[in-house]
Design goal:
Layout lengths: L5 E5 L4 H10 L3 E5 L10 H10 L4 E6 L4 H11 L3 E4 L5 H6 L4 E6 L6 H11 L5 E5 L11 H10 L2 E3 L8 H8 L3 E5 L12 H10 L3
Parallel strand pairs: 1-2, 1-8, 2-3, 3-4, 4-5, 5-6, 6-7, 7-8
Length: 207
C-alpha cells in the first residue's frame, strides 16, 4: 500500500500499532524514549517491536536527554531519526548522530515572523519540523494561511487537527511534507481499535 503523503505516527508503544502502521505504508514510527516519562517505552519492549517490523523508519522521541545519551540509544536500538519534543541548542543538535525532527508548537498568540526566524536558524541542522498545537483543535481557516506559509519554506509535518474530513483539503492547500498522527494503547494485548487511523489512511491511499 502507498500513501500520497509522508506520514509519521508518534507514541507507538505496542506491536499492534507498529505492524499496522508498517503495513499501511507509514514512513516513520516514533517511540517515546523520554528518560523522565513514566509512559516511555521500555528497552525490551522496543527491541521486541523493532524486531518484528520492517519497511518503516524508526524514530526516538526525546525531551531533555543529552546528545551523547541520544547517540548511545540510537546505536543500541538502531534508530533512524531523532524527534526532539522540546527546543535544543543548535550546538546540541549538531552533536546528534541521526537526522533530527524538531517539534514546534503554535497557538493563537504565535507571531509568524518570530517562528519563521526560529525555523530559519534551525533549518540547516534539522531534517524537518513537526507542528503541534494545544490551542487549535482543527486545521481550518484560522491557521491554514499560517501553516501554508511555513510549509512553503521548510519541511513541515502537520501534527494536529487532522481527520478524515479535512485531510485532503489540508494536503491540497498547505502542501506540507507530510502529516503527524498518534498511536495509542491497546484495548488488551493484541487487540487494537484502528478506526481513526484507518479512516485517515483510506483518504490518503494512492489509487
Amino acid at each position: 500500500m502507498g500513501l500520497r503523503t509522508s506520514v509519521i505516527v508518534n507514541g507507538i508503544n505496542n506491536l499492534s500499532d507498529a505492524r499496522y502502521c508498517a503495513g499501511m505504508g507509514v514512513d516513520i514510527i516514533g517511540f517515546n524514549l523520554k528518560l523522565d516519562d513514566p509512559e516511555r517505552v521500555k528497552p525490551e519492549t522496543l527491541k521486541e517491536i523493532i524486531g518484528w517490523v520492517s519497511g518503516v523508519q524508526i524514530a526516538g522521541e526525546f525531551t531533555r536527554a543529552k546528545p551523547e545519551i541520544i547517540n548511545d540509544m540510537s546505536e543500541e536500538f538502531g534508530l533512524n531519526y531523532i524527534q526532539l519534543d522540546t527546543p535544543y541548542l543548535i550546538d546540541e543538535i549538531e552533536e546528534i548522530s541521526r537526522p533530527v525532527i524538531q517539534k514546534i508548537f503554535i497557538n493563537k498568540d504565535t507571531v509568524e515572523s518570530e517562528l519563521l526566524e526560529m525555523m530559519e536558524l534551525y533549518s540547516p541542522v534539522v531534517h524537518a519540523f513537526i507542528v503541534y498545537s494545544d490551542d487549535f483543535q482543527k486545521v481550518d481557516d484560522t491557521n491554514m494561511k499560517f501553516l501554508k506559509s511555513i510549509a512553503k519554506e521548510y519541511n513541515v509535518y502537520i501534527g494536529f487537527g487532522i481527520d478524515k474530513e479535512n485531510i485532503t483539503h489540508t494536503l491540497n492547500k498547505i502542501k506540507p511534507t507530510g502529516i503527524g498522527l498518534h498511536g495509542g494503547h491497546e484495548i488488551k494485548p493484541g487487540l487494537k481499535d484502528f478506526d481513526e487511523l484507518q479512516e485517515i489512511f483510506e483518504e490518503i491511499e494512492e489509487a
